[in-house]
């Protein structure tokens, strides 16, 4: 009698063990790349937790720069996963890897892509709903006082040496910012750029300039990205908007960066159900900005932030997994 009552439960436990064993056999050892910026730090740790606890993988994280990681994935087949690869930053390396079949895209890591452009604070946008585009903002130098001369408006550039600083300089030239009563301000460094936004935000002073997403700063200080008054023209972007000494740049929209999860061919062939997770797993900039702001405010590690996300946002991540796998991950927290 008792044997008959217990048999279904024993069968279920046995089946679960066999299922996890099958996942582990397929997945095996997995090396996940962390290229040492905040958002990939969180995502690499999130993948580690889910692959280990949901799919029985034996996962570890390796740290390196983007070029060395991508090159190693193509030439050596390791690490197995690059959770957040910004394709526009390394078009030739990634294109070669994909063309040769050595890199496989599992799909978007960021559902709305990596975003760069010119921003204003939300409190300025709310107070001046007529400002929708860059040209709208350039009609109001009085709203964005330059730090050294408040009689002029300021467009704050990216730090010197960044590709974004070249592009912002060229777009500023295309808009004829000087003639509109503005000056182009060099923030000096990434910290200087962040500091200029934080300082103005705390004092509710207008700010106008280059920034990008996802970042913790935009999670803490809500900003509004302005339209560039023209659709993106890839040929013009390459010809002049990104070239330092080009004399005749045109107004052009900043392209959205493709941010994808890349895996090696070898991992795809053995990953089994774990590959289904990577194909489904994605989040948007708003979710990630908020998480990165929490991470910064609490001086949290990537693992801390990954666990915080899993605890606070089951309505997001459970959709990436089957109910059985989701319950395994939930039980591990």
Task: Explain how this protein is built.
There is one protein chain. This protein is an alpha/beta fold. The chain has helices at residues 2-27, 38-55, 66-75, 91-99, 122-127, 134-137, 163-174, 190-203, 216-220, 234-241, 265-271, 273-280, 285-297, 302-312, 314-317, 323-332; strands at 29-34, 58-63, 81-86, 103-108, 115-121, 153-156, 182-185, 209-213, 223-225, 259-264. The protein has a 3-stranded antiparallel β-sheet with strand order 3-10-4, with helices on both faces. Strands 8-5-9 form a 3-stranded antiparallel β-sheet. The protein starts with a helix and ends with a helix.
Largest sheet: 3 strands, antiparallel
Strand content: 15-25%
Q: Which strand order spans the largest sheet, edge to edge or round the barrel? A: 3-10-4
Approximate helicity band: 40-55%
Low-confidence spans: pLDDT under 50, at least 5 residues?
A: 1-24
Could you say which overall geometry the principal axes of the C-alpha atoms support?
globular
* Euclidean distance between termini CA atoms: 37 Å
This entry's quaternary arrangement is single chain
Radius of gyration: 24 Å
Q: How many DSSP H or I helices? A: 16
Number of strands: 10
What is the string of helix and strand elements? HEHEHEHEEHHEHEHEHEHEHHHHHH
Mean pLDDT: 91
